Amino acid sequence: MSPQNTLASPPNTHLAAAHASAAARDAALPLRGRVAVVTGASSGIGEAAAETLAGLGAHVVALARRAERLAELVARVEKNGGRALAIAADVTDPAAVRAAADRVAAELGGADLLLNNAGVMLPAPIEELATDQWQRQIDLNVTGLMNVTGAFTPQLVAAAAERGVADLVNTSSIAAQNIFPTFAVYSGTKAYVTHFSRHLRTELGPKNVRVAAIEPGIVGTELQSHVTDEGARAWLADARESMEWLTPQDVADTIGFLVSLPPRVNLQQVTVMPTGQAS
Ligand SMILES: NC(=O)c1ccc[n+]([C@@H]2O[C@H](COP(=O)([O-])OP(=O)(O)OC[C@H]3O[C@@H](n4cnc5c(N)ncnc54)[C@H](OP(=O)(O)O)[C@@H]3O)[C@@H](O)[C@H]2O)c1
Question: Ligand 1: which of 60, 97, 120 to mutate, judged by most atoms within 8 Å of the beta carbon?
Answer without folding.
Answer: 120
